[in-house]
Design goal:
15 helices, mainly alpha, three-stranded antiparallel beta sheet
């Protein structure tokens, strides 16, 4: 993917908010250039040290307290990384956050807030049955249970893949290598999309704006679906005896307990406070990796296509095996991602550039 992220030299911003080259005086609005590329020499030198410090600090915090999954902590780390990327220039950082990141943050916080009550809204409107979220009444929530089960049985000859996978591969209390891999893939959901957004913001600003539009659009339409169609995941259906007494383990959470006790398991435990347990259809966990496949497919070379595809498939298998989603949830997430990218590309992206040039036209002198 490097060729779509690569950018050339540094442009120069003048006092009236435009960018010019050192030789030519052709004005280009600075609003079309990332602050990363507008930084002066001293800011560029500072940001190398600051970014290294952020990486070291994040690694230490993660080792002791687990991967951050709460929205407020993810936002904190994102803003801190952007501050380092701006070379600790407070004014540049403030403008960049307001112009480029505030809309995304607002949507994500609204998503977390509304997703928690989506099941009650949809359940009341559509008169859904009540089930217990943890197997212990009197707590109950409204959700669809049987439609995704029926969907998986229709696709797999009467079988539910989650049950088959756990029967054949999962051993309670044992952390196999593939269980460890499942933990890594599952938790990557909380970091990959935001890290990629920051990288694009730094080095390919036009592509960043497209990516942001796709990510926000996908998030919003999944939220609308959660309101209209709250659906229980496999592990919850098992707790409510929809599999003839067969229980479904939450493999990621159980593996974290085996591997790391209270320290590592806190990653998922904290994240549960920001989730709705019946926001399962479609799977946003599966939709975002497939969004990356669809969005970057025309932009990357063969190795990039293979890597993105493996990540999307790996996430799908992890979600089904871990008891977090049905195959039906995954396929609907993939469909949502494909439709979002196709619609945006057809109606909104057609006149915008997609890649950063190998040589920066803002600083490369014209040849006469």
């Amino acid at each position: 993917m490097w060729h779509i992220l690569r950018a050339g030299g540094q442009p120069i911003a003048n006092k009236v908010g435009v960018v010019t080259t050192e030789i030519e005086e052709t004005p280009i609005p600075s609003s079309d250039v990332s602050p990363w590329r507008l930084a002066g020499l001293r800011a560029r030198q500072r940001r190398r040290r600051l970014l290294l410090a952020v990486v070291v600090l994040f690694t230490l915090i993660t080792a002791f307290f687990g991967v951050p999954t709460g929205r407020e902590w993810l936002t904190f780390w994102m803003l801190l990384t952007l501050f380092a990327a701006c070379g600790a220039d407070w004014g540049v950082w403030r403008r960049a956050v307001v112009r480029d990141w505030l809309p995304l943050l607002a949507v994500l916080f609204a998503y977390d807030l509304l997703r928690g009550v989506a099941n009650e809204i949809g359940g009341a409107v559509f008169g859904l049955q009540r089930i217990t979220p943890n197997g212990h009444p009197p707590l109950s929530i409204r959700a669809h249970v049987t439609p995704p089960i029926d969907g998986d049985k229709l696709l797999f000859g009467g079988h539910v893949p989650t049950l088959w996978l756990q029967d054949h591969f999962y051993d309670p209390g044992v952390a196999h290598w593939y269980d460890r891999l499942a933990v890594i893939i599952y938790l990557s959901h909380f970091l990959v999309s935001m890290v990629l957004a920051i990288v694009l913001w730094c080095v390919n600003y036009p592509l960043f704006r497209r990516y942001l539009a796709a990510l926000v659009s996908l998030t919003m339409i999944t939220l609308v679906t959660y309101v209209a169609f709250p659906a229980a995941p496999p592990w919850m259906a098992g707790l409510n005896d929809y599999f003839d007494g067969h229980q479904v383990s939450r493999v990621v959470r159980e593996t974290l307990k085996v591997l790391g006790g209270s320290t590592v398991d806190s990653a998922v435990e904290k994240g549960q406070a920001y989730s709705n347990s019946v926001a399962a259809m479609p799977s946003l966990h599966a939709a975002i990796p497939f969004l990356l496949v669809c969005f970057f497919w025309p932009e990357v070379r063969l190795r990039g296509k293979i890597g993105l595809s493996l990540y999307a498939v790996g996430m799908a298998i992890t979600l089904v095996y871990a008891g977090e989603h049905y195959v039906t949830d995954v396929l609907m997430g993939w469909l949502y991602a494909a439709v979002v990218v196709a619609v945006l590309r057809r109606f909104f992206f057609s006149r915008q550039p997609t890649t950063a040039p190998a040589e920066n036209p803002l600083t490369t002198p014209a040849h006469h």
